[in-house]
Amino acid sequence: MGARHAESPRCGNREMVKKNRSFSFSRSAKSLQENASNAGAAAGASYTLVGGILVLGGLGYLFDKWQGTGPWGLIIGLALGIVVGFYDLVKTATKR
Which range marks the domain in which residue 68 is found? Predict the structure, then answer.
């Protein structure tokens, strides 16, 4: 089954797994960079959405720990992260 899958028209003549290649950080980094470049602006906007929520929510959590204000810093941080993330997502989606 594996040999037929590697020869299928969707895969072309390339094999899915190359067994004789050793692991290389430079090859992995280059592959990651190519994948990120090919992902496009929508992927970048989705990273901004997730990153905004995590970073601003984390800052709100740290503010709560520092000031002892309970969940309010976390709630405000998460809300700001959602607003910033969705703003960038909408801005990217409506760009022509």
Answer: 2-94
